[in-house]
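Support request, please re-run this one:
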Amino acid sequence: MPTSVTEQDFDFDAINNGNFSSAAGTWKNKLGDTMNLNNDGTGIITSQEGNQSPFKIIDFKDGIGQYAPTNTKGHL
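Re-run finished. Output below.
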């Protein structure tokens, strides 16, 4: 049986300091979109249609992350 992640599983102090290892992994919403988050706050969002958008979390406050698209052209 899969385990669920709770808010207690996140290390918010580490996240506030740029270490996203407690939240890193693949996340999927009920629409079928996925987000692959790396330890450094970078990742890729893949829509259910297969469109990919690389991003980097640029701010994290009060449990809410803000992210910006990144350009990985030439790095794929």
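Strands lie at 25-28, 34-37, 42-46, 52-61, 64-69. The mean pLDDT is 83.
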